[in-house]
Design goal:
It comes from Promerops cafer. This is ACS2L synthetase. This protein is α+β, with helices and mostly antiparallel strands. The protein has 2 domains: 56 residues, no CATH class; 82 residues, ANL, C-terminal domain (GMP Synthetase, Chain A, domain 3), CATH 3.30.300.30. It contains 4 helices and 8 strands; from the N terminus they run βαββββαββαβα. The protein has a 3-stranded antiparallel sheet with strand order 1-2-3. β7, α3 and β8 form a beta-alpha-beta unit. The radius of gyration is 19 Å and the shape is globular.
Length: 153
């Protein structure tokens, strides 16, 4: 069981070869961090059985009052809650902290009787305990999915 950066050792068809008008940026972003490998920008977890699970973008970081926080780190904590099906964390400009954080999540259909306000407060508390108080989102948005229009089969 190990976590790290997802890097690829060989070229593949359709692989990007540069960034338009900024080849230096392409080299610095994808080829310099791990010499001899193409850095995808993704984090990955490999189980002891050899299965891989993408854990999120390593370059998707929010800077809150000087603390750098990966969005995937917060999403991982939220997604382990029994009442959460999916989540997303985004940063937004904040006058005092530099960046603020908003959490959007899709609740599961459970019969545990969670109200959305109660669940939002519970998620903020969970993030505060598992990561840090500064990691708790400023805003929590409960989302709804219209599964009949978005999924087939």
């Amino acid at each position: 069981d190990v976590s790290g950066a997802l890097c690829i050792s060989q070229a593949w068809p359709g692989m990007a070869r540069t960034v338009y008008n900024d080849h230096k940026r392409f080299l610095e972003t994808y080829l310099t961090s791990y010499p001899g490998f193409f850095f995808t920008g993704d984090g990955v977890y490999r189980t002891s059985e050899g299965y891989y699970q993408l854990t999120g973008r390593l370059d998707d970081v929010i800077s809150i009052s000087g603390h750098r926080l990966g969005t995937a780190e917060v999403e991982n904590v939220v997604n382990h809650h029994v009442a959460v099906a999916e989540s997303a964390v985004i940063g937004y400009p904040h006058e005092i902290k530099g960046e603020g954080k908003m959490l959007a999540f899709l609740p599961r259909n459970i019969s545990k009787g969670y109200g959305t306000e109660t669940l939002a407060a519970e998620l903020q508390e969970l993030i505060s305990k598992k990561i840090a108080k500064y990691a708790a989102p400023d805003y929590v948005q409960v989302t709804q999915a219209n599964w009949s229009n978005t999924h087939t089969g």
